[in-house]
Structure prediction request, 1154 residues.
Amino acid sequence: MRDITNGELKRASLSQLNGICRELREEILAAVSTCGGHLSSNLGAVELTVALHRVFDFPKDRIVFDVGHQCYTHKLLSGRAAAFRTLRQEGGISGFPKRTESEYDSYDTGHAGTAISAALGLKKAHDLKGEAGHVIALVGDGSFNNGLIYEALNSIKILKANIFIILNDNGMSISETVGSMASVLKEMKEEDGDVFAGAGISDDVHLFERFGLTYRGVVNGHDMGELVAALEDAKAALEKGSVLLHVHTRKGCGYAFAERAPTETHGIGVQTGLEYSQALGEELISLAEEDGRVVAVTAAMTDSLGLRTFFEKFPERAFDVGICEEHAAVLSAALAAGGLRPYYAIYSTFLQRAYDEVIHDICGQNLPVVMCVDRAGITGRDGETHQGVFDLSYLSLIPNLTIAIPKDISEFRSMLRMSLRMTGSLVIRYPREGTEGETPEIPIEIGKFEVLHSTMSYIVLLAAGERCLNLAQNVLKRAQAEGMDFTIVNARFLKPLDEKLLSSLSQKTVITLEDNVLTGGLGDAVARFYANSGKRIFSFGYRDAFIPHGAVSDLMAEYGLSEEAVLSCVREQYARR
Amino acid sequence: MRDITNGELKRASLSQLNGICRELREEILAAVSTCGGHLSSNLGAVELTVALHRVFDFPKDRIVFDVGHQCYTHKLLSGRAAAFRTLRQEGGISGFPKRTESEYDSYDTGHAGTAISAALGLKKAHDLKGEAGHVIALVGDGSFNNGLIYEALNSIKILKANIFIILNDNGMSISETVGSMASVLKEMKEEDGDVFAGAGISDDVHLFERFGLTYRGVVNGHDMGELVAALEDAKAALEKGSVLLHVHTRKGCGYAFAERAPTETHGIGVQTGLEYSQALGEELISLAEEDGRVVAVTAAMTDSLGLRTFFEKFPERAFDVGICEEHAAVLSAALAAGGLRPYYAIYSTFLQRAYDEVIHDICGQNLPVVMCVDRAGITGRDGETHQGVFDLSYLSLIPNLTIAIPKDISEFRSMLRMSLRMTGSLVIRYPREGTEGETPEIPIEIGKFEVLHSTMSYIVLLAAGERCLNLAQNVLKRAQAEGMDFTIVNARFLKPLDEKLLSSLSQKTVITLEDNVLTGGLGDAVARFYANSGKRIFSFGYRDAFIPHGAVSDLMAEYGLSEEAVLSCVREQYARR
Prediction:
């Protein structure tokens, strides 16, 4: 779409601003329909963001978008309109705020709950350097469940920095927001009666005042006049202290289908295959039916993790605690300490949030918690903050932990059935999409690899997970066409390693493949196993870099897992023998 | 001391209970004076714990001690009195709750903020299994700053589990508790007027009620009659829902010196040498004097990290945000994004709490935050939850991060001076104690190792940090006595590695030493460097286990870093050549 200058926004009438909102909505819909992206969350923040650009002066004033699922309008209003149709494409506009992309993006986000801490830091830096400029944290009500938000609120008075918090309250995370804070906010909206009428006050205002915030709200987030007035009022109040403005928005606003189905239209992507998450839901239901100890825990991701039906069938044994990855981990540990068998499902990149709890609470007590780590490996278009490429490394160092990596969905099902027999902590990590595969004939044995293609060749490929095994098979076809051959092993446990099988390979050249950074993963574990023996190991995985947005297959090849590179290695080693 | 049976506690008069408290205090003082341990926090919770044992039935009822710095009385009252003088000694009583030690310990703790999540999980497991029994979370006011507590409070209504939260409010973490929640609690105590008079009510009660808690308090935590009555009342109220009892205690109560100096007597240990933390404080003051961008951030550990004087000298540039490791990390990132140079000082084991933020906020944006990681390596008597033996591994996989490991305090000072020239993220990791060493003649160059003892020998020891270099020197003396020799290299950067130096060692046998688990640390990084070349590497570090409490030197040897083992390796490799 056309670039809308800040001058135009500052001069426009209210009805012109509403016209601009219509243009922006159309552009967001058009871009997301071709590029995928976060739809309903962005549609809900259009008027609010336009009003912010009207009242504040970016980039002198700064804004931090919590999570970043609502930053498209800001991008369109800050010189990126012409490039917007490259959204989420390799080399194009990121779906999240990126300091490297524009000076209008003050702070990178992607994971929930960081915005208030970040705004405090930015404002404190302004103050200490004697620079002017307001700092705004735009936070959804879903993030208000997160402990980081509370930690930041709790230190506003310590830091003595005047920040402007906008609570973008649509009652939703990806699904409906849960928890007591959500009820408080909901009641504040309801007490306010007709939210379109302006500032209502509730008993709960006290709660925010305790944190050193002047509370203003509830404001209708789709009424431009009300928004502009409230923002101007808040801007003036910032001279005296920090302000929280409570804005009521509708997720998906302006697009009827998205308003009706805000969860389904939160993130729009092109689904291309079967998903592991569906198998998780099915198998957990079957396990729960046969064993009363089985319970499920998630942190605000019930739907995307495949657990909706489980939650409906076993409401007493299913716990969604909101965007609280740490609490969910400790809760899982304690459920296990109490004699239950919790399955904690979570995306790879978000498990980082619960890292201490995985070490300290789950594995430290060697509790039988099964962590189902979804979206592992490169996830693609969401970019740096969403790639699940670190988990094998940060998990492999934890004592008491078994780490399993299924070769397909059938093997994933077998691993889940195996998990009930475990006495200690278990991680199963898998990507979003996969193929069903054949049902294994025998139960999976912990720490036992599987030889998928056996030859007399000197070369053995150890590959972890479906993507890497596919890569290995593709390389094998090309190698065979050149008259070469090699053995392929399904390295389905990073921990414990199949030491018996590895020992049997002492005369072979070993090549490892993993959908993870090289540092600290499968390649390193295998290299460590052979370190004293002087064996040559060739490891393929991702190089030491944050991997930006793009197509999964392109990024895999570009960052270290290409057929060409593996085939070259095979050729070279073949020639040496 | 003698075992006090539960029957005795249940029958005793109030004055007999107070007599028992005196016995317990004497025992705690005596044990801590010989074994070290947490003194003032434990002294403050004696009456409360005795009253709990009087009113509740352990182990059928369960109690989770947040952090665990107040569990000694519980240990003494649950069959461990006779063994108590083995406190913190290898093989003896742990200073923290340990499920493996006693069925009275329901949940292991060590890091702050887990108790309410854990109580919810234990109670939910009780309920789902149809078992009776109350579950109590005993939480200090310091932990109430932590986001995990908020996440757990926020989900009490979701989980529908009736738990009993006791807020043990002494106004202190290790130092005075900071933040808005602390002010709220303080006012609640003050509004209550004479706390010795019993239940006062404040506006802020509303806050706890919002979370589904019946609030009771403020109770004088050193008045046995009042405590027993309040606990019995709360126990009855638990039939109807979750209860929070606000108890006002005095840290160090009953020991005048500890009451006057609660921070100094929080943890009692035997200091045996110079501390890195003192150098941190001195150097940061000097850096701050020459560069106005330098600021310091800590999470409730100002004193133990050596930053007290910095905080006094630069109150506007020093931020203690309470026990909020995550918020402190995001705040540091944003301070750096705003153009400042934050130094975030933290213990190795607590940095695990901020892992996602180190990845996502600090390194993901490649911001010049300097993380000063204290208490790295084995820390000794606090046991599993406090050993700093994972950081090299979980940090080495993070892109954009430089990891430095000083060989002594002088080198640490040089690294701190170097840090101001860095453009990206930096970790400096060091143990508590060390030696000053000689001031390096030239500034430290990033990624450059230092050869400390050069020989023509085929054997090269790469050692990271003071302890491992000392170990290497000790082994060298013994090797030289046997007519052998080897080169010693100060491997002072795990990342980037000194690839030039490593390349020059292609004909040598390389042995690595690190005060960290073997998985994912220096040994693995060196093995990865040489993986394609078929070089033999011998790595020494800790095996894959949680390391319990004991003396540092004993634990080092036992878990993988012994002179004998390294010397044997040297002998074998010598013989091969």
Observations:
- Confidence is low (pLDDT under 50) at residues 194-201 of chain B.
- The first strand of chain B starts at residue 37 and ends at 38.
